[in-house]
Amino acid sequence: MPRKVAIVGAGQTDHRSHRPDVNGRELIHEAVARALADCELTIRDIDAIVIGNMDHFESINYVDAWSVEGSGGVMKPIMKVTTGGTTGTSVAVAAYYHVASGMFDRVLAVGWEKNSESDTTAAIITCSDPVWDRFSYSGAIPSLATEATGYMKWSGATQEDAARVAVRDRSHALNNPHAHLRKPITVEEVMASPMLAYPIKLLDVCPRTDGACAVVFAGEGLAEKIAPKPAWIKACAVRHSLTWFGDFDFNAGLMSLRRASQEAYAKAGITSPADQLDVAELYLPYSYAGLKWIEDLGFCGPGQAPRFIADGQTDMDGRIPVNPSGGVISTNCIGATALLRVAEAAIQIMGKGGARQVPDVKNALATGFGGCFWSDVAILSSQKS
Amino acid sequence: MSTGRDYSKLLTVTFSQPMPYEWSMGKWGSRFFQEIRERQSFIGIRCPKCGKIYTPPRRLCGPCFTELHELIPLSDTGVIRAFSTVNYPFLDPNTGKQRPIPYTYGYIQMDGSDSIFSHVIDEVDVSKIEVGMKVRAVFKKPEEMEGNINDIVHFTIIG
After folding, report:
1. Stretch A70-87: mean pLDDT, rounded?
2. Which class for A305: exposed (0-12), middle (13-18), buried (19 or more C-beta within 10 A)?
3. Cα A247–chain centre separation
């Protein structure tokens, strides 16, 4: 049996579109220092570090070595884990494995990105096959647009339905002092924003952000001493499926998320997610994901998401509040983005959410998305068992 | 460095030099472009386990974790399974320049293939494109071909 593991501290930068005042390792240090302060530990207390980003965004390939001054990794076991958009959940899952194995007591997970340092779309294109796909591929938006078109066709969802997701996330971001975009928007403004690739408009998608996030994991016996309310890891599940964008079935659900969440729910004893989860921090890079993917997560039935959103069931006072932080549509420092979902879920369990806190959170869901429609899922709980 | 550099601000360093790579296509990838030049037609490859026919031909079937050997001749026509017309500017890492926009990114199922081939379609008016439309590959002249994805100029709608 794995050792029980909890998140005991989290830190993040105040996210901005451009941070020319710091280099990458200095940006990482801001988040690490805040995470350590959050749980009143020093870097000496940390036994190992897992760090990740998307190397090609900054063209710095040796990030584990290059960043040791900022991460605190000097003369410590440090590993780089990078899986594209899911990098943030991958570093969290890897840090969890480190502690759950019993080989390390306190492990730091770090995700970061300085998106301002390159052309984001060009960098994303380099994730696709250089012989076959780069010639026609144009970054994240058109493959998501294709997914959205497929969903709209069978579900009857409209562009306005999707716009409500963006409006919700951007409205929630007003409560998060760390969020990048903190200006409310309306459905009309989303509809009037420039069409990037039908049906995705400028205000339907995430921004590009400079930022970092750090999370401290500790094992049972230590976690209770470090944090008054540790956020226990109940389940993690990873499904990385395809590598060719053409292999994806745009008329089916997001199968990686469906399978990962089913595995995590089974491990955590969750049979009715919308009732048993108190909050969800979901990696929704664009508004249509906030419809289709909550169906794959089982929050509502197929085709019911537009109604579920319009009825306010995912609002702060709804049945299952989604993205109290403002989510990815408000902040997207890519290598940190999925780790922010885990950190924000833990913040909700620990009761440290301030204006974005959902009352009495016992169970929280965090997801990561990336690669070629890959998904990671984590379930956190206030209860150790 | 530009001569107009403002030293009163926070400074950055710009890297914009060519840094070439040379990617191997493998034997089936190479064969695909040899067939394109000789016959102006596609080839696929069949998985011995699941029977799926992939184009471009790949050496390995991921779900079956098995090696593929049986090449299947295909034609130059297929069907649009999905598409997206791109309106936003971005740098093309293949050329180092802005990719011309608008352009239409197409997921095309070649006739006789089970997988989807990604390429571009020479139509940017979204009201004139529909999923299910038939398309034909337009090739460069054989003497101008270079053995890469650009040997297929684009796909054009034929009904």
Report:
1. 96
2. buried
3. 24
Instruction: Look at chain A and count its residues.
Output: 385
Q: Do A141 and B86 touch (CB under 8 A)?
A: yes
Q: Which of A136, A149, A244 sits opposite B105 (nearest CB)?
A: A136
Same domain for A342 and A273, yes or no, is: yes
- What are the tens digits of pLDDT across the range A196-255? 999 999 999 999 999 999 999 999 999 999 999 999 999 999 999 877 877 887 778 899
Say yes or no to pLDDT of A138 above 90: no
Taking the Cβ of residue A291 and every Cβ of chain B, the question of whether any pair is shorter than 8 Å is answered with no
CB contact set of A382 (below 8 Å; sequence gap of 6+): A229, A231, A232, A349, A361, A362, A363
Which of A138, A151, A193, A239 has the most B C-beta neighbours within 10 Å, making it the best mutation to test the interface with B?
Answer: A138
In this complex, do B118 and A59 lie within 8 Å of one another by their Cβ atoms? no
Nearest CB to A197; choose among B56, B85, B117: B85
- In this structure, what CATH number is given to the domain that contains residue A159? 3.40.47.10
- Domain holding A51, by residue range, is 5-120+209-226
C-alpha torsion angle, residues A24, A30, A31, A35 (rounded to 10)? 150
Q: Which residue of B has its CA nearest to A248?
A: B116
